[in-house]
Amino acid sequence: xxxxxxxxxxxxxxxxxxxxxxxxxxxxxxxxxxxxxxxxxxxxxxxxxxxxxxxxxxxxxxxxxxxxxxxxxxxxxxxxxxxxxxxxxxxxxxxxxxxxxxxxxxxxxxxxxxxxxxxxxxxxxxxxxxxxxxxxxxxxxxxxxxxxxxxxxxxxxxxxxxxxxxxxxxxxxxxxxxxxxxxxxxxxxxxxxxxxxxxxxxxxxxxxxxxxxxxxxxxxxxxxxxxxxxxxxxxxxxxxxxxxxxxxxxxxxxxxxxxxxxxxxxxxxxxxxxxxxxxxxxxxxxxxx
Length: 289
Description:
alpha+beta, Beta-lactamase, 10 strands, globular, Beta-lactam/transpept-like
């Protein structure tokens, strides 16, 4: 089964109207980024690859895995789920970091250092020690420190955030339904696995409507693992309210660079721990690592 990434969805007409509005307001760089994303959507066929379900099932999980294949096509384990929009949760730290660097909210990954207010924070009722300290964006990204990125979003502000989300064509671009510091966790922003792939493809090629410097720094902070054979770049996410987990990014190896997006139901803590291994298992099946 093959079709284009630009397949129809219930929100397709709204997305086209939003795209036209955004394009009218974009500078040349933003226009080219949007055109690049549209070209990707039109030229990257999507193929059902049942074998991509194997590592998900082996881990005892339910979800969808999307992988860029050797021929440039996009392989999916479940087409319907790959097209369905979900809250991005902490995967939004990728665009949030780009926007922070572009607007000067952060000078670099290491400055400023965001000051902890002394309030103990955690996730799903459990304290997270790595969150509860002063930290720059570099550490906050890798620790997935929610409070730091909430502070970042407030400093960016809703107007600038909306402008950049529109320029980057991120999901449905809808920041409504929640405060500026929570829309990616509880609001109406939605992004599908295939839309994540499009966004990541632009970021990987440094074609997004932000500076090359910002994109280079985000490439750097996304590094999860480096070996003599490959580099794994990515970001996890966990939408607690809907028990949904993400792992998105790309793998660089001697066989090139391959995008991936994993989206699974988060039944328990074991689900969280399985995300990276599911992707690595698929990469081994594809002889990438």
